[in-house]
Amino acid sequence: MTIPHVVIIGGGFAGITCARRLKAAKVRVTLFDSRNHHLFQPLLYQVATAALSAPDIAAPIRNLLAKQKNATVLARAVDHVDLPNKRVVFDGGEVHYDQLVLAAGAVNFYYGHPEWEAWAPGLKTIDDAFEIRRRVLGAFEEAELEADPELRKEVLTFAVVGGGATGVELAGALAEIATRTMRKQFQHFDPEDARIVLIEGGSRLLNGFPDELGLAAKARLTKLGVEVRLDSRVEKIDRDGVHLVGGSLVLARTCLWGAGITASPLGKTLGVTLDRGGRVPTDDHLHPVADATTPTTYSDVFVCGDMAAVSPKCNDGKPIPGVAPADIQMGKYAADQIVARLKGKPTEPYRYFDKGQLATIGRASAVAALGKWKFHGRFAWLLWVVVHILYLASFRNRVVVLFEWAWAWFSWSRPGRIILERGKRWPPPADAATAPPAEASEPPTATP
Amino acid sequence: MTIPHVVIIGGGFAGITCARRLKAAKVRVTLFDSRNHHLFQPLLYQVATAALSAPDIAAPIRNLLAKQKNATVLARAVDHVDLPNKRVVFDGGEVHYDQLVLAAGAVNFYYGHPEWEAWAPGLKTIDDAFEIRRRVLGAFEEAELEADPELRKEVLTFAVVGGGATGVELAGALAEIATRTMRKQFQHFDPEDARIVLIEGGSRLLNGFPDELGLAAKARLTKLGVEVRLDSRVEKIDRDGVHLVGGSLVLARTCLWGAGITASPLGKTLGVTLDRGGRVPTDDHLHPVADATTPTTYSDVFVCGDMAAVSPKCNDGKPIPGVAPADIQMGKYAADQIVARLKGKPTEPYRYFDKGQLATIGRASAVAALGKWKFHGRFAWLLWVVVHILYLASFRNRVVVLFEWAWAWFSWSRPGRIILERGKRWPPPADAATAPPAEASEPPTATP
């Protein structure tokens, strides 16, 4: 009897959880990810705002699976999946699978305007975070040299697009940087003059959280000095800043994007009908659903995390939020189903268990929605700290992050204030004499 | 009476030391550095080999001088220095100085072959370190996918050019990565099969250290599995690896450069005759020396650190080694002379005080030359640890680095095993529609 081959695409929360849960199973596991590290995305905004350094929140996938003899890690981008023939084709070869777990995550999405990305980077990868860090810290350096007060104002204006958790957390961190971290570090201007504008198209912040927490977040951000602009839809983002529908312009040298993601482009290669967010619709077993274009049900395929538009049946008719606990649950579920099927046991539908939602707003403040409990302020923040430390992938990271946070708490400083260069020599060494130019501001490519 | 203006170019050991030492002086200090951080260069190889993360060994210059009211930090590259008119011209303006401290350091040097750089990156900046890290870790990932044993051998060969401290430390760290860090992390090959070749043009390692320590380093590296090739001069570096004079070729996918640096190109703008290493010859007061092209002695200019070819008179007729203690001493000296002159006190010539030299060779081993004492092994390594912790610029860094080292010691792991992308979106947002390609593999530009 040959050992069944489980292929997992993506080393995020769902993929890693699934792979680890298969440790004792009689399967061969192959995990693909074009990046070599698992990323703890909920804390990525802290790398972008220089509160943490990258290795604090990233762990080599190979390390996470080092003690697992049945797992192979391939650091390769998957090109496409051939569902009918059960093949995964990647840059450099192809593999056959018996069971497939699709967990390639999501990428930034600019609603048909990929040209905005150059002006307003999103926050999905460590490189994104470094780019944001470079721009934010660079703006303050620029201001020290700008003699014209009008231009300095523009240089010191930061526009954050999107009032979800990412936007709220970025705006809060920017406010803290301006009022605290940078205090007394410049001779020619007061960093507190920095203007932070949070732009949201809808009528409230933190959509998906209870109404009252959206209000609490708005109040807290306003207190921190952030200008919150609701019902403000973006017309265009360019050199000048963010142009809003209706004609007004937020003149800002630095714009950040937290307004949208779309599922990994890998979904497009499956030949199934995707939803508006580019996600693969699934049944209550996380299998891709049969439709006109895909009459077959692929019961050997599980779609997890941000790539999946999970059947509302799995959450009492409601959509499942894009939070880490949901991804982890799906990864566990897929692993358990794979094991059950190997043992000939009956499979069970997936049920989402709501562990609640948390978001921080600057120092010592957060909002929390845990089932019926809704609260905000200092206690919510403590809860946020505890939860994030517990979820961090390895013991080491927990200790380091705790240390960094404790240090930052008492010193008000941010250790990661290092501006990297603009990747002058980053293009790979193709041919030294004719090294190709780096692809400039192209939309994010397929991940993993 | 106007307050004298001291301009310092460069935020390395010499520049930062000088600026800090002028804290209580009745001067205005302006420090230029195109990078926003001071870098603890002696530990940079640990970032390159994933043992430390970048913020552990870098501190924002602005932070280091935050409490110093008389200092302004400008994050700008200096274009040129106009000695006769006492002006510093930078990207965005110019300033007049009363006293100038030139401490812009050095850049990688390829002996007239800048095209080698694309194949063999050097190690002077954090971006250099990230690039080396990407290539080294990437090679192991590549090997996991390479089916052809001959090609895999090539992929797993690492050539380090230069048998000085940088080359020895890199080679030792690579050996540790292959035999320890990567152990049991791959399914298709044994990381211990990696071949590490250290190439040195001279007849010994660690030139500048006593002979016996060069021998000890060679013995230790050989024991770690490193192939040490002495008397091997480089003819060419290209896609295939390192071609040696005489015709032999070290077939290696990854080459690293530790064989040469040259003083900052800023020296060329001074209009004085430079030495072979691009350095500014100085008298025993660190002033640029008068020669045929510069009949004037510029007694208001101090040249420090790697930019200076200091008069041998300052070290009993011997040249001064390019080590951090020398840079720090010169920075202090310049500050003290500036203060003395303000007070109308007589100035004194600079005297180099030899604090010795240290280099590590993999885990728990180092060589040390402290005046008459020469020793190697575990005790030298402990000394190395203590000295480097003490010298780290801020208390925070000391604690973190100690922690990281202690952790690595017991776990044999390397926390920084994060491969960054190739800077797809790094070019600055010029115009989104026509974003320029990143400059590909151009030689390092003038720093700061």
Report on the structure:
Two copies of one chain form a homodimer. Chain A has 448 residues and is α/β, with parallel strands linked by helices. Among the domains of chain A are: 5-34 and 76-108 and 262-342, FAD/NAD(P)-binding domain (3-Layer(bba) Sandwich), CATH 3.50.50.60; 114-259, FAD/NAD(P)-binding domain, CATH 3.50.50. Helices cover 28% and strands 21% of the residues of chain A. Chain A is built from ten helices and 24 strands. The first copy, chain A, has a five-stranded parallel β-sheet with strand order 5-2-1-9-20, with helices on one face. In chain A, strands 13-12-11-17 form a four-stranded parallel β-sheet. The first copy, chain A, is globular and about 75 Å long. The two termini of chain A are 31 Å apart.
What is the gist of this entry?
Two copies of one chain form a homodimer. Chain A has 448 residues and is an alpha/beta fold.
Q: Termini separation of chain A (Å)?
A: 31 Å
Low-confidence stretches of chain A: 422-448
Report strand order across the widest sheet of chain A: 5-2-1-9-20
Report the sheet-strand fraction of chain A: 15-25%
Could you give a short account of the major beta sheet of chain A?
5 strands, parallel
Computed over alpha carbons, the radius of gyration of chain A is: 22 Å
Mean pLDDT of chain A: 88
Largest interface (C-beta under 8 Å): A-B, 77 and 77 residues
User: Which class of one domain in chain A in CATH terms?
Assistant: Alpha Beta
Question: What characteristic shape of chain A results from the CA principal axes?
Answer: globular
Number of strands of chain A: 24
Oligomer: homodimer
Structural class of chain A: alpha/beta
Query: CATH topology of one domain in chain A, anyone?
Result: FAD/NAD(P)-binding domain
Portion in helices of chain A? 25-40%
Give the name of the CATH architecture of one domain in chain A: 3-Layer(bba) Sandwich
Number of helices of chain A: 10
